[in-house]
Amino acid sequence: MKGLLTIACILISSIAVSGQTIALKDSARLLGEGKISAGDFVFNTSFTRDGNTVFFSKATVNWNYIAIFYAERTVSGWSDPEPVNFTGTFRDTDPFVSADGKRLYFASDRPVGGADFKDYDYHYFYVELNGSKVVSKPVLFNLPLPDGIRINYLSFADNGNAYFHSADGKGDGDIYVCKLKNGKYLPPEPLSFNDKRYFDFDAMVAHDESFIIFSSPNRKGLGGADLWVSFKKDTSWSEPVNLGSKINTKGSDNAPGLSRDDKKLYFTSYHERAAERPIYKDGKATAAAINKLLHSTKNGLRNIYEIDISDLKPSD
Hints:
This protein is mostly beta strands. It is built from two helices and 25 strands.
């Protein structure tokens, strides 16, 4: 959501933690190059149960406009992305498909209950899904939150437990869970690794609740904001570990998403090598060649990447 990456960029403290990092076998690659990752500012990923439809966000660099798109897997690759039928007027972002595939949750600054529009006043909503098709209007979704805590980057374990982060506006971001019990959500509980020294955001829980991946700009990592993982053991969470250089860069790495089997991680970053300088016929630049570069995945905007994390496991 707007503001979180800005906060991440201006936080200047760098507090030392363990130098241990995860060493994954796979390397990150663009998701849907030329279709999903095609030169736009894209982030977030959530898949339908069959894995054949992906929902994601597109935005302007200044966050003034955000919309939710979807693409479908075909025999020849991903289809051309299309906006979902409720998006395009307000800032809609952070889509998440429920475990049963029947709901798509998302954040939006659309007005609630007939109130006037308020810039960046986000709430969570859901729409009903029939397969990959949206078949209802947005419905407000609430959790039993005390004053001072707001839902950001909502994700669910398959047991219904709801995970999110909340920022206090003073440089602290913490991750919480609202557990689902007897069909009702309980008040939020902070995760055991929360620390007032750190700004942790964009938390994505594994569907089986065995681990959680999140971003942080001031846990000492490789760049401006790195992705970290914590593993669940009984009722507590392990000390977060950096996901390493196969994922993290010198820039910002965030907006994680997971495949339905939790074996692939999707995230937003910029891994592309520097663009090669175009060679023009007769040495004369052409608008077509320049525009092709400027509108490609090498234009410096962040793309969505995927990486196999089936070998991800806690250290001994």
